[in-house]
Structures are given as structure tokens and as C-alpha cells.
Automatic annotation (TrEMBL):
Example GO molecular function: preQ1 synthase activity
InterPro entries linked: GTP-CH-I_C/QueF, NADPH_dep_7-cyano-7-deazaG_red, QueF, QueF_type1
NCBIfam families the UniProt entry points to: QueF-II (TIGR03139)
Pfam families registered for this protein in UniProt: QueF
Pathway assigned in UniProt: tRNA modification; tRNA-queuosine biosynthesis
Signal peptide residues on this chain, from the entry's feature table: none
Region (Disordered) location: 1-25
Family: Belongs to the GTP cyclohydrolase I family. QueF type 1 subfamily.
Function per UniProt: Catalyzes the NADPH-dependent reduction of 7-cyano-7-deazaguanine (preQ0) to 7-aminomethyl-7-deazaguanine (preQ1).
Principal cellular location given in the protein's record: cytoplasm
Source species: Hohaiivirga grylli
Localisation per UniProt entry: Cytoplasm
Catalytic residues identified in the record: 48, 55
Protein name: NADPH-dependent 7-cyano-7-deazaguanine reductase
Amino acid sequence: MNDKMLQLGQQSEIPQSPEAAQLDRVPNPHTDVEYVARFTCPEFTSICPVTGQPDFATLMIDYVPGQWLVESKSLKLYLTSFRNHGAFHEDCTVAIGKRLVDLLEPKYLRIGGYWYPRGGIPIDVFWQTGEVPANLWLPEQGVAPYRGRG
């Protein structure tokens, strides 16, 4: 990760894989307060590593920034790079969370992967780095665990 090589404001290709994707970070202008930044990706896709069929999810990423913020265009490109990536739901969700933690060193991060059913079984995956900082408002993610009920 090179803080000076931002993709923002220039033509960027969709990365061929999550490993090849560049995630950029920018300085947090409000390091004096704790707040939650939320990213919602309602159209996340990856590929089942067994069948080769597409898998679909809504991802919710909440984090409490320290010194760094993730640059949103690079995050969009990173998440899009999973479109042709074969991995199980658990691997995709946790790998995204870990990569963001490595990049940002946030005070807290949680990710919810709300996966649509495949073979009749939805697999929702949740991961977080620790306890929510004290006195911080962290709203519910607001995604029903199973969306097939109506």
C-alpha cells in the first residue's frame, strides 16, 4: 500500500483478483473523536469454488477509524475483484475484514456478510476485531438474517 498512489481521480481497471487489488487509505481528519464509518455493499458477488456458480451477498462494514480511512473508490474496486474469485462465504467475509484491519489499524471493525441462499441454505458470516469502544453509538446493521421470508 502506497499512500501517495491513490486511484482516486484517475482511470482504474477492475483488479483481476482480491490479491491484486490495491486498497488506498487517506488520513482521518477527525482523530480527536471516535465515530463509526459504515460501508454497505448490497450487490457483492463471488464464485463458489466447488460449482463455479455465482454467490450473492450484502456486506456491511462498520469501523471506528484511528489514523486512517479507507478510500471508497479503492474499496469498491477491491470488492468488485471478488466477482471472479472462487472462495467460500466464510473466507470472503473474514478475508475482507482482515485486509481492512491490516490496512487501516482501526480502533474497531466489524463485517457482516449476509449471503443469499444456495442449495436452500443461507450462510451469514460475522467477524469483528474486539469490543465496541465505550460510549460509541453503533447501530444495528439492519439486514435480515434470511431474506426469503417476504
